[in-house]
Structures are given as C-alpha cells and as structure tokens.
Prior knowledge:
Layout: H1 2-6, H2 8-34, H3 39-48, H4 55-84, H5 92-108, H6 114-139, H7 143-162, H8 176-179, H9 203-220, H10 222-232, H11 234-239, H12 244-267, H13 284-294, H14 299-315, H15 328-339, H16 343-364
Helix pairs in contact: 2-3, 2-15, 2-16, 3-14, 4-9, 4-12, 4-13, 4-14, 5-6, 5-7, 5-12, 5-13, 6-7, 6-12, 9-10, 9-14, 10-12, 13-14, 14-15
Amino acid sequence: xxxxxxNEGVQAFLASLICILIGLLxxxxxxxxxxxxxxxxxxxxxxxxxxxKKPARQMKELGNTMAKTMPLILCSLSxxxxxxxxxxxxxxxxxxxxxxxxxxxxxxAWGWGWLPCMLFAIVxxxxxxxxxxxxxxxCNVNEVISxxxxxxxxxxxxxxxxxxxxxxxxxxxxYIDKVNKSALLPTAGIDSLFGNNNNVTIxxxxxxxxxxxxxxxxxxxxxxxxxxxTGNNKNAAKYAGMAQNRNIILTLVISGALAGxxxxxxxxxxxxxxxxxxxxxxxxGFNGIAxxxxxxLHPIGAIFSSFFIQHIxxxxxxxxxxxxxxxxxxxxxxxxxxLCGFVLFIKLTMKKWIAKSEEKKGAKN
Length: 365
C-alpha cells in the first residue's frame, strides 16, 4: 500500500479527490444552514450539471461546458508553465483580457478571418506577458505585483477599445456571427457530436494538442530543462551558462501567449460577448490557478481538472432557487474552487505521513 502511495501520480490524484470532497461537503453544510430541505438535491444538481437536463439536451449542454472548458485549460497551462519555472504569473487574467480585446477588435473593426484574429490574440497576450518578464528580469519587479497592475490596465484599456465596436443599445460588443462570420472558429464537424452545437469548434482538439506540446517542452526538451533549472536555482543556472534573463522573459511570453489563445478560443466561438462596462477582471484567468493545482501542475492533469471546475461552475445554476437565492450557486462553486488550491499542501501532508510510517516501521525492525 505504501509503495502505491509513494507514486507522485497517485498522490496528486488522491490530494485532488480529497479537496473536491471537502469542498462539496462544505458547500452542503452551507446549504444545510440556510435551508436543510433542499440541501441534498441542490448539491447533487451541482454535481450533475448537464445530466440534470433531459437526455435530448444533455449533449448540447455538454458542448456548452466544453466550449468554456477549453479556455480554462489554456489558462491553467499558462499558470503551470510559469510556475514550473519558479514564476507565479497572476497576470494570466490580464493577458487573457488582452487576447479577448485583440481577437474581438480584429474581428469586428477590421473584418479579419478567424486565423489572423487568433494569432493577433496570441501576440497580444505574449506582449503583455513579455512586459512582466522584462520588469522581472531587468528591474527585479516581482511578477505578482506587476501582473496585478497590468491586469487592471488591460481591463480598462480593453473596455475603452471595445466600446468602439459595441452595440449602441447595450454595453456588449456586436455579435460576431452578424458582423463577420469569417472570424468564427470553424467547427470541422465536431459540433455534430454535441447535438449540432456551434459553440463546439476546433478549439477542442487544438487545446489538447497545445497541452501535449507543453508537456513535451517541459519534460522532454533542452529548453524545458533550462527553464526549470532557472526556476529551481537561478544562480546555479547562471553559473552553468544558462541565459537567466532570457529564460524569465521567454517563460512569461509563452505563458501570456497561452492566455491570449484562451480568450480567442472562447470569444471567437460567438458564445460570449465582451461587456464594455465590466469593472472586474474575468474569473477565467484566476480559475486557471485552481485548475493548475488541482491537476497536480501537470499539463495532462490540467485537462481533467479544468473540465471538473467548469462542470461544477455550470452546475451551480441548477441549485433550487425555491429554497436559495441564485447567488448561492456561486458560493458553492467558489468554495470548491478555493479548496482546489490546497492540493500541494495535502500532497506534502501525505508525504510526511508516509515518511513517519516508514520511520516507525524501521525502528520496530
């Protein structure tokens, strides 16, 4: 049994499962305190999400969840890529916003096709990440501080720019499918698997490919080795002849590019529009932090953890509003997502417990 528990993959899975169960339990207790009558059913509805619907609607609703899961996966990849190199890119949220701004403006104002819009979003996210990298490398500005500041700069700049392509009667940008259909991501027939849901596009295979590429870069390449070496000990990496500043900048550029791509893969489906009066940074970038840690900071694990987080977030809308206010769904989802950040702590606790057990066993022998 101890041999199984020593496996890093098993530890990551168990730690994630414990966090999920604790989060669901706390959410259930909150519902019990408010109104015990509907606590059980509402908690089950959060877990079920689209399974709460009739069978004919389930695949279509699954498609909607998938459409929002893909950008979340990329945001989690953005977080874990920089974290593996010893950087905490909280600026992922702002880089996501920059990508949304670039893709939407190029689509609505300039009439670009889907691929140029996507590439423009990637460049916008990469540039914002590069600014954080330059400040970190040459001015020793902590990436968390600069990232937070740039998040707000990106938000209000985006609101100003996209206000020029919004509807006159609402704060939302125009529908892409009405203004420039060529900017919509192609479905390539994938939509037929989800009840002809046009929100399901090439974003699905593209995101999986990107996750695999990130795993290969970090685990199988010289570049990945150098980046991780810089993160583990920048002085030792510098002594070994590695370009410390270049690696920091490159890491945050790649991280920003992933966040920019995430926004493109959501807004270019036409599933969501930008609200030009919003005063808070979209939660997608911050949820990526929870998804990255819940997935054990592994690119493949991030795929499954992101789907789970988006699944329970969407499932929150099925909380019984006869017993609870609609906002309680956000409370439950937030508690579960918050607990996801304790995965590494639980893994460390498990390792200490295993080490003590082995020490006691050795003392007896």
